[in-house]
Write a structure and sequence with these properties.
This is procollagen-proline 4-dioxygenase. The structure is a single chain. The protein has 538 residues and is of the alpha+beta class. It is built from 15 helices and 18 strands. 28% of the residues are buried. The C terminus is likely disordered. Helices cover 40% and strands 14% of the residues.
């Protein structure tokens, strides 16, 4: 759908060019008319009586003023924008919404945190992987929306608490500071922007203030906003507010010092709701959501010992002489030992991939998850992708894929869920989760009537230049997308108990477009199909 938006915009540009040509043609006609009359009137006004003494000149003057100027008026009033406006109206129904724009902005912040990218690298398009990036000048200004508040100008008649509106829960002052600082650097480098420097500095100072660094916020204002010409009303109002708060804070500290020296208990002022400004010399850190998951996504996972690695093998397998695999055994590679994760190579063809994507695209909808309380499907902020479901009735290719999975795994696909196709766009991810229902989720798959999810099969249908790994967060394993391959693992032990080491996540896509499809295989029908092992892990 993002690809479709490119063609939508291209069509609008073509329509806009047509409008410009029509306007230029109209202006050219007006210009020719003006040039002709400019010469004529200049000559005529040198000797008006002599000019009008000629009967033809008198006739033409009357004719021009009676009819030709009316024609010119109609030409000037002619609206050539109808075609463009009509096209824009039609295409607007496909435009992204405010929610989409905010979602893309949040995705960039997610990528920045996960892959430890600087605001400078992102704004310059300097990202890992091979890509062709067209970076809009000052695109980072969109992050102003993260403030989610409008600072009101200083008014001495109001209470201090009302000078600046309270931020909403969505405010993200940490990232606002990073991006406003980058905006200042680009302004200092001479880039053009519709946003002036003092506005950026004002937002920067306010973001710093909201993080508790009042003195540093005031220094920023004094350094760049106080002497701005013409005066900036909001910036000046905020500066006075910061000065008021700083003076108030100093008075509280003086009271605390007096109380301490007189032996009184500390913290009276703090109990009244005051806080000290943090040590500005201390290094600034931020606890990022995701913890170890982010490091695994960067490829900093657990490294296997040589002894463990020596137990992983590559092999050709016909899965116990399955008829479909005798002449064309599948290529297997052990990715991890516990849980046992196996990758299959050349397991799906380019034709099959394109057919699956072709069938899925019209059906793509916001991906859902199982609500552990209701057992029903619902959307969630921790899963950002679009998905569609395909059955064997949709096309013979899907039936062929389902049969292949049954041959390779030896498991019954009759009780498996439909083939789910997922597309992860900008910053698309799926935070750590289990595929199987835990003990505290007894009704997770009750409505399906096929038991728990015994195993997961995951096709990679595209290469991803950067990011997009599947990481198993409890063991530190990372599986990287490779087009035409698939990975398989059991979610349950042979005893039917859940394997908690299979907790996994889909890392945000940093560069590229990630297509996957998966099959969740359920317990029913597998009673005598799963290979027996000497331990629960097999």
């Amino acid at each position: 759908q993002m690809t479709d938006l490119l063609y939508t915009e291209k069509d609008l540009v073509t329509s806009l060019k047509d409008y410009i040509r029509a306007e230029e043609n109209k202006l050219e006609q007006v210009k020719q008319w003006v040039e002709k009359l400019d010469t004529l009137t200049s000559t005529a006004t040198q000797d008006p009586e002599g000019f009008l003494g000629h009967p033809v000149n008198a006739f033409k003057l009357v004719k021009r003023l009676n009819s030709e100027w009316a024609d010119l008026e109609n030409l000037v009033l002619q609206d050539t924008s109808d075609g463009f406006i009509s096209n824009l109206t039609v295409q607007r129904q496909h435009f992204p919404t405010d929610e989409d724009q905010n979602g893309v902005a949040k995705a960039l912040l997610r990528l920045q945190d996960t892959y430890q990218l600087s605001a400078h690298d992102i704004s310059a398009g300097d990202l890992p992987g091979e890509c062709v990036c067209v970076c809009l000048i000052f695109a980072q200004i969109v992050y102003l929306y993260k403030l989610r508040c409008v600072q009101e100008p200083y008014d001495g008649r109001r209470a201090a608490s009302s000078w600046v509106r309270s931020p909403t829960p969505e405010a993200d002052y940490y990232h606002t500071e990073l991006w406003m600082a980058q905006a200042l650097r680009q302004l200092d480098d001479g880039e053009d922007s519709p946003v002036d420097k003092v506005t950026v500095m004002d937002y920067l100072s306010y973001a710093i203030y909201q993080q508790g660094e009042l003195e540093r916020a005031l220094e920023g204002h004094h350094g760049g906003c106080s002497n701005w010409t013409p005066p900036h009303q909001r910036a000046n109002g905020n500066m006075k507010f910061f000065e008021f708060q700083l003076e108030k804070q100093r008075k509280v500290e003086e009271v605390e010092e007096v109380e301490q020296s007189s032996g009184q208990k500390e913290g009276t002022a703090r109990a009244a709701g005051q806080t000290r400004c943090p040590d500005l010399s201390a290094p600034r850190t931020r606890c990022l959501r995701g913890g170890d998951t982010n490091s695994f996504c960067r490829g900093e996972g657990v490294k296997m010992t040589p002894r463990r690695r020596s137990r992983l093998f590559c092999r050709y397998s016909d899965n116990g002489r399955k008829p479909h695999l005798l002449l064309a055994p599948v290529k297997q590679e052990d990715e991890w030992d516990r849980p046992h994760i196996v990758r299959f190579y050349d397991i799906i063809s380019d034709y099959e991939i394109e057919k699956v994507k072709e069938l899925a695209k019209p059906r793509l909808r916001r991906a859902t998850v199982h609500d552990p309380i209701t057992g029903k499907l619902t959307t969630a902020q921790y899963r950002v992708s679009k998905s569609a479901w395909l059955t064997g009735h949709d096309h013979p290719v899907i039936s062929k894929i389902n049969q292949r999975l049954e041959d390779v795994t030896g498991l019954n696909m009759d009780t498996a869920e439909e083939l789910q196709v997922a597309n992860y766009g900008v910053g698309g991810q799926y935070e750590p989760h289990f595929d199987f229902g835990r003990k505290d989720e007894p009704d997770a798959f009750k409505e399906l009537g096929t038991g728990n999810r015994i195993a997961t099969w995951l096709f990679y249908m595209s290469d991803v230049p950067a990011g997009g790994a599947t990481v198993f967060t409890d063991v530190g394993a990372a599986v990287w997308p490779k087009k035409g391959t698939a990975v398989f693992w059991y979610n349950l032990f042979a005893s039917g108990e859940g394997d908690y080491s299979t907790r996994h996540a889909a890392c945000p896509v940093l560069v590229g477009n990630k297509w996957v499809s998966n099959k969740w295989i359920h317990e029913r029908g597998q009673e005598f199909r799963r290979p027996c092992g000497l331990s629960e892990m097999e």
